Amino acid sequence: MDMRSYMARKTIYLVVTLFAIIVFNFFLFRILPGGPEAVLVPKGGAGSEIIKDLIRAKFHLDDPLPEQLLIYIKQVFTLDFGLSASRWKGESITSGLPTPIINTILLVGIGTALAIWLGVSLGRFAAWRRGKPADTVGMAFALTFYSMPTFLFALVMLMLFAGELRWFPLAHAYGEIPFVRNPPTYENMSIFEKIASRLYHLVLPVIAFTIEVMAEYALIMRNSLTDVLTEDYIVTARAKGLSNKAILRDHAMRNAMLPVVTVAAISIGWVLGGDIMVELVFSYEGLGLLTWEAVNLRDFPLLQAIFLIMAIVVLIANFLADIIYMYLDPRVKV
């Protein structure tokens, strides 16, 4: 199968899966108890039933399901996610999403990139020295943080570095600037001050997220590379007199990276979902914290929009992983 046919087939799968996700997301929030009218209108208020009827008409909730589905599909493709029922009561969801999306991309994007690089490096280091003290220490480090709850490590960092030592802020994605007296508000900062403010607030959340995720990559990379190093073609490469560096770079790592690509695709796909625990602990205004608030407030339209965005990003990330798979292992095309 040539590259064009392979890409065409994967694109068709992408479109079909995307449509299935949209339909599933539509029905998921219509089988849940309650609705926008129950959240927006207090119980027992004067004229509450009339207002509820108006809200149901506004959201097309009294229309037949096929008509509601067609309206929803049209809204999705025009990026119209409707109105927030409680989080931004009565305001457009589309206008409120960019800020938390940007905040989460910065946090989890940087954290995921660092986690992949550090985890792959640690796993490669341990696998090449398997059975030696370096392997034992490296895997003990990875297993410790892999089994530790994310919120526990984040809380320890928050209490120590932000609470006790006061080196970093306790909350928020931006705000005060370190070592500056009477800092201006974020809106009045210069571009360099805004960058410094964001980086200052990102340090602790990024470290907490990176170390937790890095452990998973380290374990997967170590196990995958250990299996690859026992293959016959590695023995043949040694017999040909190739250097250890050439064997590792040109022969072993290419095949050992395949499981890592799968995990990376899922992690990168969830970049917009963020790590809810990290964002909750640090009160970081991203999609993870927004999801938690929307669940507590039963803001179904907002949750519907967030779930759809996360699902689409996961889908696209897996599509890119298929392409990377084909580059790393041409046998995938067969």
Low-confidence stretches: none
How does CATH name the architecture of the largest domain? Orthogonal Bundle
What does the radius of gyration come to?
A: 24 Å
The assigned structural class equals mainly alpha
| Average pLDDT metric | 79
Helix content: over 70%
**Which superfamily, in CATH terms, is the homologous superfamily of the largest domain?**
MetI-like
CATH topology of the largest domain: MetI-like fold
Order of helices and strands: HHHHHHHHHHHHHH
Would you mind describing this structure in some detail?
This protein is mostly helical and 334 residues long. It folds into two domains: 20-78, no CATH class; 99-333, MetI-like fold. The protein has helices at residues 3-28, 36-40, 48-58, 65-77, 93-96, 98-128, 133-147, 150-164, 191-228, 232-239, 244-269, 276-281, 287-297, 300-328. Helix 1 packs antiparallel against helix 14 and helix 11 packs antiparallel against helix 14. The model has no long low-confidence stretch (mean pLDDT 79).
Brief overview, please?
The protein has 334 residues and is an all-alpha fold. Helices cover 71% and strands 0% of the residues. It has helices at 3-28, 36-40, 48-58, 65-77, 93-96, 98-128, 133-147, 150-164, 191-228, 232-239, 244-269, 276-281, 287-297, 300-328.
